[in-house]
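Attaching the record inline, Q. Sequence:
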Amino acid sequence: MLTGKQRSYLKGLAQTIQPTVSIGKADLTETVIKSIDDYLEAHELIKVSIQEASLLDPKETANEVAEMLNAEFVQAIGRRFVLYRPSSKLKNRKIVL
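Structure, as predicted:
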């Protein structure tokens, strides 16, 4: 569970990154989940966008994905959301909370 200060710090980091995964009209597929998982392992922080064709709610989707991948929900703004998960490999850890 993230503290308020940790969440604020991660929000600041997330401002500088672009969405790396997009969820389309096919909604949450195994491929999308795998892409998010792989990116979190390598970079620890990910911004995901939900395309207009999808009817998913960003906050609900973010919480669902976070639960599936053992990640932390950071924020949802518009049709984008941010997730954080520390890398399991020490050499990939870049974010110190």
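Residues 30-43 form the longest helix (14 residues). The CA atoms of residues 57 and 72 lie 17 Å apart.

More tomorrow.
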